[in-house]
Amino acid sequence: MKKSIFKILVSLLILVTAPMYILIAPVYAFSPSSDVIYEGIDVSGWQENINYAEVKQSGIEIVYMKSSEGKSFVDPYFNQNYTNAKANGLKVGFYHYLIARSNEEAVQEARFFVSVISGKEPDCRLAMDFESFGNLSVAEINQIGITFMRTVENLTGKEVIIYSNTNDATNIFSGELTNYPLWVAQYEVEQPTPNGKWSTWAGWQYTDKGEVAGIGGYVDRNKFTEQVLLSSSGSIPLPDNTNEPSAGGTTTITIQRGDTLSRLAIKYNTTVARLVELNNIANPNLIYAGETLIVPSGETPTDTDGNSTSGQTIYIVKAGDTLSQIAASYGTTARAIAVENGIRNINLIYVGQRLIIPTNRYDLKHTLYKIKWGDTLYGISRRYGVPIATIVRLNRIQNPNLIYAGQTIRI
Length: 411
Prior knowledge:
With 411 residues, the chain is an alpha/beta fold.
């Protein structure tokens, strides 16, 4: 009789607790969407020339590559990365870095993304990398994101995927965006942290300090599931009423005696910061006649005052100007202009220099951090829980291993 009562009590306990476990378990479950896992990397112009034969031999199976950013920038190594990765039998995927601030701009960026990748045959879902939000509200972020994703789907007939760090997946993205597979970035963990919205991941970027044969320096390492693969092959069509962008979005010139980056920026309708970025120039004040320089071939046209005809404000420095005066005229700060244009000394600007005036492009929620002696991007990344790759993109850092005490960055 006592044993019977004991069995009854145990059965009741199981009946009571089992439903609780069933309800709770899915909330905390966050696992790969398939048992098959592919080793992968994601690359951009930061990695420069890559030996894909060695990459393939090292065990990498999937390569995601940056194709474009905004409405006019094509990664200068995109075509080269695509051709060489395909030639060595690697599966490839493309991602676009989204900076839209409205639904209209989201559509424009989607069309540009598709035009850049048109004619190519990806093996993996087309990815949206949206992580710099400006002053957008959470609702606006999600609306812009879903507009971009749907437009890309409709223009290409291909499946898409959203790339996000764990914080944004937990606190920002929601609604219809969660219907798309997630490629999550989270470092130094044994497995990604549950975000309460996605129950599985299709991709996991687990470090930005990966080392792979054939690549000089660090590279992002990833694990991908079968869900990241496209359901059908075929090339990407060029959107209607769209001109195919020039290869790489850049051209090469030879520096002439007397040239300066400021003069060349004016001549080629760009900025000193963009020239520094494209050419990995350590000292913007030191260029040499006879050397070659990569310059953009499709920058946004500007009017005679330097103001962009598509909404971006560009100011050409005049005699007597200071960053503080310019900032006051445009309702921003000298520091914001300096950060936007990669200026290290806010007291040193040049007549004729072209400055991008920030107009809500960067998030006021971002923390401004002044680098101290002994700091590294790795240490700052760990302290604030932000991927190194995100800090590099936000601040246009040319060499992640080279930062300076006193330099102010956004996190």
